[in-house]
Amino acid sequence: MNLIGCGYTDTWEEEGWSIPATNAQFLDAYTDFAPHLLDLICAVPDGALFKWGLYDREPLEAWTSGRVSMLGDTTHPMIR
């Protein structure tokens, strides 16, 4: 199962796809959500949650170099 939660923070400092997250962090972020969602978060085994940031970056001047072009998911991050 892939469980994704989105939120905003201005204190994010790490970049990566495998930064450990705790159930408590998710519960803190979604305390005002429906109880069945909180139950789902609690059911995730310890050590199985990860977090990563979405960043807004200036667009590249070129998306192609020689015979290689970046398309689709390779062009992330894009949040606009």
Count of helical segments?
Answer: 2
The description of the largest β-sheet is: 2 strands, antiparallel
Uncertain segments are none
Q: How do the strands line up in the largest sheet?
A: 1-2
Strand content: 5-15%
Strand count: 4
Distance between the termini: 27 Å
Q: Can you write the helix and strand succession as a string?
A: EHHEEE
General form:
elongated
- Indicate the mean pLDDT: 83
- Computed over alpha carbons, the radius of gyration is 17 Å
Helical content band: 10-25%
Task: Work out the count of structural domains.
Answer: 1
Structural class category? alpha+beta
Question: Can you characterise this structure?
Answer:
The chain is of the alpha+beta class and 80 residues long. The protein has one domain. Helix content is 20%, strand content 12%. It is built from two helices and four strands; from the N terminus they run βααβββ.
Task: Explain briefly what this protein structure is.
The chain is built from 2 helices and 4 strands. It has 80 residues and is α+β, with helices and mostly antiparallel strands. It is elongated and about 50 Å long.
List the topology elements.
Blueprint: E1 19-21, H1 23-29, H2 35-43, E2 49-51, E3 64-65, E4 68-69
Antiparallel strand pairs: 1-2, 3-4
Describe the structure using short key phrases.
2 helices, two-stranded antiparallel ribbon, 20% helix, elongated, two-stranded antiparallel sheet, 12% strand, 80 residues, single chain, alpha+beta
